Amino acid sequence: MASENYAIKGGRPLPPTSVNQALNFDRDYSRLRNYYETWSVDYDNDVSEENYCGPRMLGDLFDSLLPASEARRPMRIMDACCGTGLVGKELMLRGFSPVDGCDLSPAMTNLARETRAYATLYGGVDLTEHNPMIADNQYDATFCCGAFIEGHLPTEAIHELMRITKNSGLILLSTRCTFYTAEHFDSLLHKLTASRQLSVLPSFMNAAYLNDVQAHYLAFAVNK
């Protein structure tokens, strides 16, 4: 993958890190999957070196939304785009486990399985499509951390997250601030809240994500 052009931010090439190279695939999911299949063995170390804190931030947001008396009640949770299982491990530390997970890359889900944070894992899942392996209205909470970024999930993929989440269930997601603005994610979310398909919950805006990169951490309740 060293031959990939480096991502551009503000007219400047970003440093040629593995994280930045992953932004270059323009939603060509075959190539993106191949990249993650290869990157999987180094992924945790690479994102750690860039102080990736998305899973912890979403975990903090989740905790803040749950009353203390209910914070550890049994919940069925999906970690969508679970990667190597960083969100699953974070939730396990907070008393929520096992959870389910899915990812485009089977190699990533194989590594997630080693965390022992997951009950069921689905590899090869493209969240831009309806996936019959995952039934409707299954989850009390659906997480999606690190996937609403350049070259990865389009904003419309939130519909698949909504499909698998129960009525009154929660969706918690991260989105890079640059993606949120460039892809007009706020417009789609406004339409979904205006039509009462989603209800806005407290969120963390312009918060830490990676070195020199900020993200919004958004939370919604699903209405069906």
Automatic annotation (TrEMBL):
Keyword Mitochondrion tagged: no
GO BP: any one term: methylation
Keyword line: Methyltransferase, Transferase
Entry's Gene Ontology molecular function annotations: methyltransferase activity
Protein name in the entry: Class I SAM-dependent methyltransferase
InterPro entries: Methyltransf_25, SAM-dependent_MTases_sf
Record domain Methyltransferase: where: 77-169
